[in-house]
Amino acid sequence: MYKFPSDMKAAYESSPLSFVYYQDVEGKPIPVLASDGFCKKTGMSRDQVLDWLSTGMFERMHPDDVGVVSKVSEEFLKKAGPYDVVFRCRIGNKYEFYHGFGQWQTMPDGTELAVIVYVNVTETKEQMITVAESYELFREDHFYTDPLTGLPNINYLHKFGGEKINVIKSNDRIPHLVYVDVCSMQSYNNQYGIKEGDELLRIIAAALKSQFPRALLIRGADDHFIMLTGVDDRDELSRKLEAVNDEIRKNARGNTTGIRSGICPVINSMEEALDHAKHALKRIDNDMNRVVAFFSQAADDAYWKSRYIIENFDQAIKNGWIKVFYQAIYRVENEKIAVFEALARWVDPVRGTISPAEVIPALQQYHQLYKLDLFMLEQVCREIPIRYENGLPLVPVSVNFSRQDFDYVDVVGEMNRLYDKYHLSRYVDKGYFIVEITEQDVAAGAAGFRDQLRKIRANGYRLWLDDFGSGYSTINMFSQFEFDLIKYDMDLLRHLDDNGGANRLILKELVYVAKKLGIHTLTEGLETEEQLQFIRSIGCELVQGFYYYRPEPLDEILFRVRGGMKVKPCETKEERDSFTKRWLE
Question: Phi, psi (5° rounding) for residue 197?
Fold first, then answer.
């Protein structure tokens, strides 16, 4: 970087004329000296001036003028044209007119510097406008501006947004990108017309500029705005955006739900912050009480995990990454295995085992859960002949289904199809299969869904009510459906002694009511001997949990008795039938 001789530097800096010396550094003009005259016109110190011109030269310039000044500057640096241009620059809170003209100067050591002289011509603005109009100097430049709102557009953001970020950082503030969405814009246009819709966008632009006068406000695509602003206090930023929303709803010509905003600090790049801000906005969803959502790394990680699951789900099924694990359900009376519950486990070659707590919600969100549930059912059907041929007891299996499944497939029809496809009548009757439905699904289901539930038992399969006690827990549903068994939610057992042992009383009474209704009972979440003794004391019939062993796949360990012993395969049908009887009795 060029260093002025001390006497020359002192003389130039003290000049009342308004000028700046620039050096061409890798195709970018870097200021190396600013005169007192220029500093006085801008109202800034010399250090502030040099920092501003280094990091945000175009940040204060009128968006309509940025394009032509940028082009003139580039050509001048390449010595392909003169520097002679009139533009508008924001000084304080208003734009003033400047005429800039420059020339190249060779310094004593041979270094070439560009000196640009800036003349404030605001005093003769009327004459300037007349002359400018005749030469079309200040014609609207829609490459960098939005004609509807007069705001800079997305081209301006990509070209000069980095300068604004640098200016914010130079003021020791944290730059944040705010992505603003206008709620139900299409509905507003349909109801009040395109003209009023355009007016609403202008109202929003004015409200945002009023609350954030120093921010770079961009009109994005369609009904979106983008803002780069310095943030010291997130709560204050939220309050300002909520105030903007209130002002919009107050001043709009028609009914509007206002705006919603996703926010992300600019850490690595503006593009990354914009992407994160969009993801934050999605988290608001349909919550009418929220105006603002800040980007969360945890939420972003969850989003990408969800996308990985959805994008690789079909491949996971095709390649056998999703396996059936069986968890035993025991009779409380003799601790013999009565039923196995089929559980899905995704063993991914890249990410290892993906938790069902991630897989199930992702598939449910994108309405793909029915594919997993039908896949699990078919795998269970395929493994019945394998068990039989290996002389293993044919223990009944429960398969989980979601209310959403019934919206996309005929569940009972699929069960009948698979039963016939694998010729299962040779091995088991239909009562071998148990369909588990959560109480939340049953309570929220429409009439058509409930009709399909009734068909499950009518076709010979068994129906269990899962997770009872986790949500609605209305006894009334037992007068509407015939369930073979109630499975009580694991939290009831795990928190037996909370709140003075309230769950002990609740479980005891729930088991009593089920017995009176002729419905079998099962409690989930068994972990300790003390819990097992309590379950036995209240007369619950079945129990499930990790007290015995954790779920395992058929191809590793088919059945495991307490103590870790593998079940010895039976060699004859008589031996197998005898073993099955002892195992299940």
Answer: -65, -40
**How far does Cα 326 stand from its chain's mean position?**
33
Residue 229 CB contacts under 8 Å (≥ 6 apart), including other chains: 168, 175, 176, 178, 212, 214, 215, 216, 237
Question: Is residue 218 within 8 Å of residue 226, measured between CB atoms?
Answer: yes
**CB neighbours (10 Å) of residue 195?**
10
Hey, what are 232's tokens?
């010291």
Q: Which CATH superfamily is domain 154-295 in?
A: Reverse transcriptase/Diguanylate cyclase domain (3.30.70.270)
Homologous superfamily of 6-135 in CATH? PAS domain (3.30.450.20)
pLDDT averages per 10-residue partition of the chain, 585 residues:
90 93 90 94 90 82 86 90 89 85 86 92 60 47 84 90 86 91 92 93 94 92 94 92 94 90 92 92 84 85 86 95 90 87 93 91 92 96 86 86 92 96 94 92 77 92 88 64 89 83 89 91 89 92 76 52 39 54 45
Return the exposure string of 467-502: e unless at least 16 CB atoms fall within 10 Å of the residue's CB, then b: bbbbeebeeebbeeeebbbbbbbbebbbebeeeeee
Alpha helices per DSSP H over 260-351: 270-284, 297-318
- 248 vs 257: CA distance, rounded Å: 9
- Strands 259-265 and 292-294: what pairing? parallel
Cα–Cα distance between 532 and 579 in angstroms, integer? 26
CA 68/CA 29 separation, integer angstroms: 16
Global pTM exceeds 0.70? no
